[in-house]
Amino acid sequence: MRTSSIFGFNELQACLADWPTSSLGPAPSEDPIIDRIRLILVANKEGEPLAKADLQPLVRHLLLREAANSGHPKVLRVPVAPHWPTASEWSQHGLSALAVGENAYLLNAQSWHPTWLEASAEGVFADAFSDKMVRQDGRCPVDPFIEAVTGFKDYSNPGQRESIRASFLIPPGDTLIVNLPTGSGKSLVGHAPALVHRQEGHLTLFVVPTVALAIDQARQIETHLVRDGMTDQRWPLAWYGGLSTSERSEIRQRMLNGTQRILFTSPEALTTSLLRTVIEVARNGMLSYLVIDEAHLVTQWGDAFRPAFQSLAGLRNSLLRHSKSLPFRTLLLSATFTPETIDTLANLFGPPEHVQMVDAVNLRPEPQYWWIGTAYPGEKKKRVLEALRHAPRPFILYLTTREDARDWYNTLKFSEGYQRIRRFDGETPDEERKAIISAWVANEIDGVIATSAFGVGMDKQDVRTIIHATIPETLDRFYQEVGRGGRDGKPS
């Protein structure tokens, strides 16, 4: 059985040379791209049709990456067999296929130079296939109290360090505005109080705009809560529609007895189904932090769209009155605060003299941008499909409406043959959302076709490609969605 430490490019080549008699073994590869290829081959061995449309971009990605890292062209020997791609199909995905005898092709990856998109000599997306680090290393030694609960040896940057320190040092009852770029560790600022305050009676309410983000944030912090040795029991950390009645009852009870520590929830739930419990927690002095993630939305979303966001300031003031003897701290987190938004939030969550701010925004070097205007829908569809055949993995294809997301998903799944994709929009059931996020994190899917419901805060480090097939409603949304890519500091 091969172990994760040795299943690399050479092992993949040996496996393909002996296909289909070679053994892949159950262990994942430490290389995410090779592991994606391995999972496709495992599924084929288990009787599923070969996912050709998913396999071909991954093979091209692997060969271009190996060439970029070594400085020499790389080739891969693949079978000529029924249900495997033909030479013509490999070519459509930017791979030349040279016949070697009757039973194999030798594949060589070609750079992509479409006539409709300006590119460098290396081709479109060239940098995103490499493993070079383009983000400046801003890491700095972590504080001992954070290392003790996370195991981290470094903060990702000084802005994260100052934000976490400030979150503990601001006076009770005050507000801290945290403005950090996407991918710079903003979530840990909100998680830190719940991780550090291990004793009972310290609840952090963490307000997020989407169910996807609540589920993903809960996934991120859960391993730390178990790691700190306080418990080996895993209980719900996110409040959303998919919870059972008994789970909701258990969460309320843990909030009231001081053992919940952190709860991720929406503004709507906080102002309705959770309100009575939260007031009681505040009255008993057990509410330590109110964290509002993507806090710029408080000023952006008006009365007609999710007015509960605009109710958060009033709710906070009410809870502070209930917790007068032990007032909680408020954290407002975002990557897209404008000066006008900051002024508004300082007044809503102030008074301003009780509002502090850490502002450490910088231009992210990872994203590179290409754009093309099209004259009619058929042309746009043709261009997007061509781009997807050549783009590095994993990818997110963003649409504005649920209808567009469904249409594109159906096209990719049933017309183009992509199998390792999922659709995620505002009507995706909660259990399916959890399954998609788990599969996304585990490299079991290569692409998500999504509306903004799969957007702000989703933290997967190695997303290489973001495609907008429709124009986002706002510049902030565009920035947030582009920010899903390159969070590992490599080009996207």
Brief summary:
This protein has 492 residues and is α/β, with parallel strands linked by helices. The chain is built from 18 helices and 15 strands.
How do the helices and strands line up, and which of them pair or pack?
Layout: H1 9-17, H2 32-45, H3 52-70, E1 75-79, H4 87-92, E2 95-99, E3 104-109, E4 140-141, H5 144-150, E5 154-155, H6 158-169, E6 175-179, H7 186-196, E7 203-207, H8 211-227, H9 245-257, E8 262-265, H10 267-270, H11 275-283, E9 287-292, H12 297-300, H13 312-322, E10 329-334, H14 339-348, E11 355-359, H15 377-390, E12 395-398, H16 402-415, E13 421-424, H17 430-441, E14 447-450, E15 465-468, H18 475-482
Parallel strand pairs: 6-10, 6-11, 7-8, 7-9, 9-10, 12-14, 12-15, 13-14
Antiparallel strand pairs: 1-3, 2-3, 4-5
Features:
single chain; 4-stranded parallel sheet; 492 residues; 3 domains; alpha/beta; Rossmann fold
Task: Explain this structure.
The protein is α/β, with parallel strands linked by helices. The protein folds into three domains: 102 residues, no CATH class; 220 residues, Rossmann fold (3-Layer(aba) Sandwich); 106 residues, Rossmann fold. It contains 18 helices and 15 strands. A six-stranded parallel sheet has the order 8-7-9-10-6-11, sandwiched between helices. The protein has a four-stranded parallel sheet with strand order 13-14-12-15, with helices on both faces. The chain has a three-stranded antiparallel sheet with strand order 1-3-2. A hairpin with a 4-residue loop joins strand 2 and strand 3. The two termini are 34 Å apart.
